[in-house]
Amino acid sequence: MMRPLQVVFGAAAVFAAAAAAQAGTLEKVKERGELICGTSPGVPGFSLPNAQGQWAGFDVDLCRAVAATVLNDAGKVKYIPLNPKDRFAVVQSGEVDVLSRQTTWSLSRDTTLGLSFSAITYFDGQALMVKKTLGVKSAKELNGATVCVQGGTTTELNIADFFQKNSLKYEPVSFASGDEAIKAFETGRCDAFTTDASALYAYRLKVANPQDFVVLPELISKEPLGPAVRRGDEAWANIVRWTHYAMINAEELGLSSANVDEQAKSTNPEIKRFLGVDGNLGEGLGLTKDWAYRIVKQVGNYGESYDKYLGPASPLGIPRGANNLWSKGGLQYAPPIR
Predict the structure, then answer these.
(1) 3-state helix, strand, coil in the chain (%, to 5)
(2) This prediction's pTM
(3) pLDDT tens digits for 203-252?
(4) Which residues contact 161 (CB under 8 A, 6 or more apart)?
(5) CA gap 63, 74 in Å, rounded
(6) Is the dihedral of CA 56, 58, 60, 61 positive or negative?
(7) In angstroms, how far is the first alpha carbon of the chain from the final one?
(8) How many CA within 13 A on the CB side of residue 263?
(9) 3-class DSSP assignment, residue 307
(10) Which strand (E) or helix (H) includes residue 261?
């Protein structure tokens, strides 16, 4: 039987370990005064710098929200554009604090790369795009086609699986980046271009005549996309995770960047807890009680971000679909903030 003194020392060791984790990435970001975010080199709707060098997009908003949570300033983010082959090593080394770059959460990535995936921010699936002049209505009509694909991604395995399962032949043409792949596809190097459906809508904006191209209806894979952090700092992973959950909960509660100040007067107990008017739920994250308020005020709720960069009224024009709230037939569901 463990003696009482041993119990005390054992408990002290647990608390010491927890304190050490708490003093990890969170403290480094605070001391630096800047969040370092790894993102894609430039995908419309997800992460793209404007003429002034300011980054914007759906993935960018997750980093802005984390900065608002931790530093009280959504603008205090340094963006590091990463190609698919380098992105995981950069997270492992600690060169970036969070990876928010259209990255699929899979078993192998979750168990062998030293990463911790925090949440599913976007439910996606791989698809194929072709020129309308090809006259193809289904991916199953592409027997013998050449297919442009970005190397170092899950798309290579998925497209191979799809053609094998459907007893079709194809010739893959691999490129180091999505931009290289879409340029080759546009010039006729390949009959089709494949990547996540969301990215196809984005890349279609980069061609000279977007109306000449069509995304085929089949989704040939499951691609749950989300941010990743270095494994071993659960406190930091929790902050990134609950940043996303706060944006989902805010939309459920009807809180937006436009009304959040007025809603601080609400008598709704859920809203009062969310905004830190009652209690201090930020304490468990190592944050102040108004942590979630800062996200909504400076960045907005999940729906605001989606509609601005990806939704039907945006240049990409992607329906919410699976990314709608669970209460509206979608899959976005967040644990309660209580």
Answers:
(1) 45, 15, 40
(2) 0.85
(3) 999 899 999 999 998 999 999 999 999 999 999 999 999 999 999 999 99
(4) 220, 221
(5) 8
(6) positive
(7) 37
(8) 23
(9) helix
(10) helix 260-263
